[in-house]
TrEMBL record:
GO CC terms in record: cytosol; mitochondrion
Family: Belongs to the class-I pyridoxal-phosphate-dependent aminotransferase family.
Cofactor(s) it depends on: pyridoxal 5'-phosphate
Taxonomic classification: Eukaryota, Metazoa, Chordata, Craniata, Vertebrata
Catalytic activity reported: L-kynurenine + 2-oxoglutarate = kynurenate + L-glutamate + H2O; an S-substituted L-cysteine + H2O = a thiol + pyruvate + NH4(+); 3-phenylpyruvate + L-glutamine = 2-oxoglutaramate + L-phenylalanine
Protein name, as recorded: Kynurenine--oxoglutarate transaminase 1
GO terms classed as biological process: kynurenine metabolic process
Keyword presence, Ligase: no
Pathway: Amino-acid degradation; L-kynurenine degradation; kynurenate from L-kynurenine: step 1/2
Organism field: Jacana jacana
EC number: 2.6.1.64, 2.6.1.7, 4.4.1.13
Length: 442
């Protein structure tokens, strides 16, 4: 018993010591996370999950086989740490591959750095470049983590929207119909602007920025001496013969751009968490600093396998057998299938030019999910929650990709992921068709 007493008083004194705030100020206002919330809802209720962005089909055999070879081959050093800034075979092949795409000689050791997915690449960039008081231009709708990452680094996000224009009569809207207003964009640049974040192809809309749009951005970056974080994780997922243009290849942009990629998206293996940055040493040296003081090493075996995947793709570049040719071909079919399915039930799709996401208009379904006046939660968020709970179909509300004050302007759309097996897309179609029937039958 005396022992009990002393342990009680010990826990009391420990508690008393923790009475001051434990949370660092930089975390204020960044605790809500759409993925944590909606991944849990999907796990609990969904029969068909078209929410979070990951394929439900396997990565290509050549990649899986490379992983198995790395895992059980003779070179047992692949189970140990490798070079901190990237496993040498991976940075070498990435330098070769992206050197070819960008039309310049890249040094594997200074122009490439491997990260734990594109997420860590983004985090390193925000931490390495943004100071207290710096402004960061973010194009809305945006991959949601850009905003908290800016704030955590002490920066101020400045949002500029893609503005939708009505499609031509009878045509479905396309992600191409969402455009920047050049004057509005230019008005966001000033002497405090440090960085602009570009995401093309864009998650969630699937917009592929045209050369003209990228030139406009590039001119402003050069004029105002602004850096560009270019998130290009969906670089291979471009449809209808569209071209993905790398902003780093435009005049004046190499020296001020970090290009970010992801093996998760490139090889349909999101769980491997292998990402990379490509850029000039004057920028990458600071990313290496961030990386060496936080993560330091990334998983060796996954890097070895991704290196072999790129080796194969370099040999097959542009050929019919290349995964980078085959995957978009397959995904374009899936996109067309989902477009048709949504259109047939009146959930008007915005046809994406790229990525594996599709945004659809839920206006016609509003009568099923009553509006709650004066609610803090955007309508599309309540709709998506209702849909997964009542119909078993998971999607993500578009307002999640907007900053606070702008959420209410875009609250009647939801985002679907179509990187799914045919059976999954068919099951989603069954749910939608049944729902439509219930709506029309008396
Ligand atoms: N950027 C964008 C635009 C994304 O959609 C994602 C993943 N959803 C990431 C970065 C993160 O990629 P990774 O899984 O490689 O960390």
């Amino acid at each position: 018993l005396p022992l009990m007493k002393s342990s009680n008083s010990l826990s009391f004194s420990l508690q008393a010591k923790m009475s001051r705030p434990v949370q660092a100020r930089r975390l204020e206002g960044t605790d809500k996370n759409i993925w944590v919330e909606f991944v849990k809802l999907a796990a609990t209720y969904s029969k068909v999950n078209l929410g979070q962005g990951f394929p439900d089909f396997p990565p290509p055999d050549f990649l899986k086989e490379a992983f198995v070879r790395a895992l059980s081959g003779e070179n047992h050093m692949l189970h140990q740490y490798t070079r901190a800034f990237g496993h040498p075979p991976l940075v070498k092949i990435l330098a070769q591959f992206f050197g070819k795409l960008l039309g310049r000689d890249l040094d594997p050791m200074t122009n490439v750095m491997v990260t734990v997915g594109a997420y860590q690449a983004l985090f390193c960039c925000f931490q390495a470049f943004i100071d207290e008081g710096d402004e960061v231009i973010i194009i809305e709708p945006f991959f949601d983590c850009y905003e908290p990452m800016t704030k955590m680094a002490g920066g101020t996000p400045v949002f500029v929207p893609l503005r939708p224009k009505a499609p031509k009569d009878g045509k479905l809207m396309s992600s191409e119909d969402w455009q920047l207003d050049p004057a509005e964009l230019a008005s966001k640049f000033n002497e405090r602007t440090k960085v602009i974040v570009l995401n093309s192809p864009n998650n969630p809309l699937g917009k592929v920025f045209s050369r003209g749009e990228l030139e406009l951005l590039a001119d402003l970056c050069v004029k105002h001496d602004v850096l560009c974080i270019s998130d290009e994780v969906y670089e291979w997922l471009v449809y209808d013969g569209k071209e993905h243009i790398r902003i780093a290849s435009l005049p004046g942009m190499w020296d001020r751009t970090v290009t970010i990629g992801s093996a998760g998206k490139t090889f349909s293996a999101t769980g491997w968490k292998v990402g990379w940055t490509v850029g000039p040493n004057r920028l990458l040296q600071h990313l290496r600093n961030m990386h060496q003081n936080s993560v330091y090493h990334c998983a060796t075996i996954a890097q070895e396998a991704v290196a072999q995947g790129f080796q194969r793709e370099l040999e097959l570049y542009g050929k019919a057998d290349s995964y980078f040719v085959q995957l978009p071909k397959e995904l374009q079919q899936k996109r067309d299938w989902l477009v048709q399915s949504l259109d047939s039930v009146g959930m008007k799709p915005i046809v994406p030019e790229g990525t594996y996401f599709l945004v659809a208009d839920i206006s016609k379904f509003k009568s099923d999910v009553p509006d709650v006046p004066d609610s803090d939660e955007p309508y599309d968020s309540r709709f998506a929650k209702w849909m997964v709970k009542n119909k078993g179909l998971a999607a993500i509300p578009l307002s999640a990709f907007y900053s606070g004050p702008h959420k209410s302007n875009y609250n009647h759309f939801i985002r679907f992921c179509f990187a799914k097996e045919e059976a999954t897309l068919k099951a989603a179609n069954d749910i939608l068709q049944k729902w439509k029937q219930e709506k029309t039958s008396p």
